[in-house]
Design a protein that fits this description.
With 271 residues, the chain is mainly alpha-helical. The protein folds into 3 domains: 175 residues, Glycerol uptake facilitator protein (Up-down Bundle); 41 residues, no CATH class; 36 residues. The protein has 12 helices and 2 strands. Strands 1-2 form a two-stranded antiparallel ribbon. The protein is elongated.
Length: 271
């Protein structure tokens, strides 16, 4: 457990480095270089609140990750002096509440896309991060690094951004149908292709996502066709019982006996 808390703090620390680059290098170049922080977080599988909140992660885990992300961002901001100036911070944090919330939602949407799709294409991460910074969207962990020592003044602003990030991530999760990929692991074996058909050992593949930022694992389940095996064993047993005792001949099967019986009945009716 302690190791996961350290990893969550490390994720926030990396975000603070991205904030320092964004402050030093200006808008466009800083926005591109900021994406290095998220690329490292995805590569090393560090828990980040904005990368986990869109998935079905328990609230208790989200709260712990958020707290340690912010602690990491706070410490990194103090170490690298990534805070915004008092004037810029005042203008940013005193915007109307609905604007702050909408900016948080926009960031949450782009962060979910970056984490979920960026595992397959890192270019998506760079594009999503650059877009949210140039658009002026709000990222709760980055804002913690920008605010740092003034968090007692702007805590309400941070709470609004957290809510917006959560709403944005959930919107993409449900609208795009990404939740269906997570539900497949819970589907019963009867819903898998090939269940109850064919020979034993037919595989049904079931796909799911890990809630750690959306890491995908594929599970193979061998579905045994017990009915086929049982009928095969019964056929072998009946074949053994049909063997005659003295001459090595086999007794007629049930179908043969029934056919013979019907033939004799027809002869009786003709007579």
């Amino acid at each position: 457990m302690e190791w996961h808390l350290i990893k969550a703090a490390a994720a926030g620390f990396l975000i603070s480095i991205g904030c320092k680059v964004a402050v030093m290098e200006g808008s466009f170049l800083g926005a591109i270089l900021f994406s290095l922080a998220l690329l490292c977080i995805i590569h090393y599988k560090l828990p980040l609140f904005t990368g986990k909140v869109g998935y079905r992660t328990p609230v208790s885990i989200l709260v712990v990750v958020l707290v340690f992300n912010m602690l990491g961002a706070f410490s990194g901001s103090l170490l690298f002096d990534a805070q915004l100036s008092a004037v810029n911070l005042y203008q940013r944090c005193n915007a109307p509440w609905y604007k702050v919330l909408c900016n948080g939602i926009g960031c949450g949407v782009l962060m979910f896309i970056a984490v979920d799709y960026g595992k397959r294409n890192p270019l998506i991460v760079i594009m999503a991060i650059t877009t949210f910074i140039l658009c002026g969207f709000e990222h709760c962990i980055a804002d913690m690094a920008y605010i740092a020592t003034r968090v007692d003044t702007y805590w309400a602003f941070l709470l609004l951004v957290v809510a917006g990030n959560a709403i944005g991530g959930k919107l993409v999760y449900y609208i795009t149908g990404a939740r269906n990929d997570r539900a497949r692991i819970a589907a019963p074996a009867e819903a898998s292709p090939g269940y109850g058909q064919g020979t034993a050992g037919r595989e049904a593949r079931c796909r799911t996502d890990d809630t750690q930022g959306g890491h995908i694992a594929v599970h193979d389940m061998a579905v045994e066709n017990a009915g086929t095996e049982a009928s095969s064993a019964a056929d072998k047993e009946s074949d053994g019982l049909r063997k005659s005792s003295g001459k090595g001949k086999t007794e007629p099967s049930a179908a043969d006996r029934k056919c013979w019986h019907n033939f004799l009945a027809a002869l009786r009716r003709l007579a």
